Amino acid sequence: MSVPGALPLVSGADVESAAELLDGVVRRTPLEHSRALAERVGGPVWLKCENLQRTGSFKIRGAYTRIARLSDAERARGVVAASAGNHAQGVALAARELGAAATVFMPESAPLPKVAATRGYGADARLGGETLTEAIASAVEFAEATGSVFIHPFDHPDVIAGQGTVGLEVLEQCPDVATVVVCTGGGGLVSGIAAAVKARRPDVRVVAVQAAMAAAFPASLAAGRPVPLTTMATMADGIAVAAPGDLTLAHVSGLVDDVVTVSEGDLSRALLFCLERAKLVVEPAGVAAVAALLVDPGAFAAPVVAVVSGGNIDPVLMMKVVQHGMAAAGRYLSLRVQVPDRPGSLAGLLRELAGLAANVLSVEHERLTPRLVLGEVEVGVHLETRGPDHAEHVLAALTAAGYAPRVD
After folding, report:
1. What is the pLDDT of residue 237?
2. Which of 12, 299, 360, 372 is 20 to 30 A from 251 in CA distance terms?
3. In Å, what is the CA distance from 243 to each residue of 187, 246, 308?
């Protein structure tokens, strides 16, 4: 398949060929129904759980396809890649299973569990540079100096075809699917899924989702060429790619129906949603499709399949993101209250909060602020609530009790 004036696109037959190659190598990951999302969308919503794939993400599909199709002489020279983590692990495992030495360049900020896992699969992981773009440049230089074959994380037909096998599984597991929503960084996954899905079901809508703080596709699509971002600032390291490739841009332009973005708060809420409601451990990049459904559920015709692309999250980051997600979901409430400066006043306020089932996380006692009159103190209280409605109830009840709380 091709689009006039664009690069030749990966075909449905290419993806099917990759599926034959990957049979017995990758897992056929489950499609899990989400009742909570279905209620919002107004029809069936399924989660394609690539976070349960080998190496914890879909990346093994494209990496194995690419390396398996090298000649014996090429594999003997070794392979080199650049990645923030998931592609690194996919290349490392694929190279090990295919008998090739692997060197992987990773940004200094790469999550430590991903670095450790990459080394655990047998690759030589080298840290350097602040961004994936710098890591790719180092990998290309290494390939030129050593003769190793560079395995691009997204911009190669074999990689796209391998990732596209996710789309084939979606069509087989949910034959009546109307919309497929896909987390997107450089575009390899959504390109492959779109190639597979559109070949069999051109009526299915394919939507790419990017982090708003690392969304390279909108400007690139408008310009008709890859336009690098000058800055990126997102917790979703797996989709923090400064620019799409020529090939993935051609696929997204020709096959993908829409590109939408989600905020950092949206990602946090989606990660918390997956933990609480779907019982799935997912990394921030992996929840982008779920985030889009939560933000605008009416924009997606059901049945919907949202691809949960990876689950490799640093536990430290998980704690921070869960807290951020709880704050974004209105689960925290910080307020200040003036009370008389006499014994028992603080205890009375805390008893009131206990009666409202608000969990007190911290308390501050302030006597020196200009807002106070003689004989008053200000109490700052940080609370955990059950959500926005409960927070409003707490504020109303404190007001009715004569406390005049001020949200901090």
Report:
1. 87
2. 299
3. 9, 9, 22
